[in-house]
């Protein structure tokens, strides 16, 4: 039976070494970036969000080393910057944690936390969440997964933050590099009760649920063939790799990306070296 409390991909977490520099880099790429958020002392992290509809990207940095953020720090030490984990939307995190517990996996959480949010009118509110994680070892393709229940969607999906000069609208696919795409895809499919299917080039797709973005597991060679002419320097053989973003206007995308833009077939790309370890591929919506 499919998990009842998981809808599909909610957001992609891009681990960065210098949080403020990363935010400025994404602004230069034409993204509207939220004000900086700071998590609890227990979490020891801060973030900037890049809001789409119905999903988003999160730039996450470690501010103070804690036990909680040890896996994220280990990822950066092994891989450098890039996609470190993917969140699903949770309808009810407590119930979702019990669902995976019933399948023999010990969830981390559910955990309640919040961060201050500066609203467009200058007032301060809070974004409140309840999350749970699959066990740290359950990381298909080297990318961890968790689920996020938004208690205050109105302080996260702020209309003023959802329009981008580069015309980005939503995440279409999350591409994860691995030497063994079929094995890693089967691992994820088993964790979230979805059925994997093989694409024409041998990559393996796992739908995340609903109308949300798909996971795609593929080798670095397959990724290179999909995006000919785009340097993959900075990507490791196994780990987070790329986000395919739907653009509402590819001409606007290319203009906003400026010198970072690389045309590859029908996509306009930003190489990982210019997007904090994540290949960005914009396609027509």
From TrEMBL:
SUPFAM superfamilies, per database record: Glyoxalase/Bleomycin resistance protein/Dihydroxybiphenyl dioxygenase
Signal peptide residue numbers: none
Sequence ranges assigned to domain VOC in this UniProt record: 8-150
PROSITE patterns to which the protein is assigned, alphabetical: VOC (PS51819)
InterPro entries cross-referenced by the UniProt entry: Glyas_Bleomycin-R_OHBP_Dase, Glyoxalase-like_dom, VOC_core
Cross-referenced Pfam families: Glyoxalase_3
Entries under Gene3D superfamilies matching the protein: 2,3-Dihydroxybiphenyl 1,2-Dioxygenase, domain 1 (3.10.180.10)
Name the UniProt record assigns to this protein: Catechol 2,3-dioxygenase-like lactoylglutathione lyase family enzyme
Organism: Bradyrhizobium yuanmingense
